[in-house]
Design goal:
Layout lengths: L5 H12 L7 H9 L3 H13 L18 E8 L5 H9 L15 E8 L5 H6 L11
Antiparallel strand pairs: 1-2
Helix pairs in contact: 2-3
């Protein structure tokens, strides 16, 4: 277990709870913490290197934005996982997925606006790698 400084804990809390919408968000956070922007970025990078931070990005509530969501899985032969991933990722409006080689089950969460073209995209999928499951 990695011991974090109080400053690093504050940085984590601010990133999770109050990340600024700004052209220079790290500069805004640094100012709030009394740090230089460079120091804050170095601290964030160090926490990323230690895998304390895996990613920084938005987390939205699809239902509050008028989207609907569903979790989808597909059984794909292991030798077709890369091709399946490329095929799904080629459809505009679908989220980008990544599939590891540790399993032949691929899971993805779809969040789409009502009336989107999801059903049309999936109707085109039969005959592609991994369909139908063997």
């Amino acid at each position: 277990m990695v011991a974090l400084s109080e400053t690093d804990k504050e940085i984590l809390n601010m990133i999770q709870l109050d990340f600024p919408i700004d052209a220079r968000p790290f500069q805004v956070l640094a100012k709030r913490l009394g740090l230089s922007e460079e120091d804050l970025i170095a601290r964030v990078q160090a926490m990323k290197d230690l895998m304390i931070i895996r990613r920084i990005g938005g987390n939205f509530s699809p239902d509050r934005l008028g989207y609907y969501s569903t979790l989808c899985t597909a059984q794909v032969p292991e030798n077709k996982i890369e091709e399946f991933t490329r095929t799904v990722n080629a459809y505009p409006g679908l989220p980008t997925i990544t599939c590891g080689t540790m399993t032949s089950i691929s899971g993805l969460l779809l969040s789409l606006l009502p009336g989107s073209r999801l059903p049309i995209a999936w109707k085109k999928y039969p005959g592609r790698p991994g369909y139908p499951p063997s």
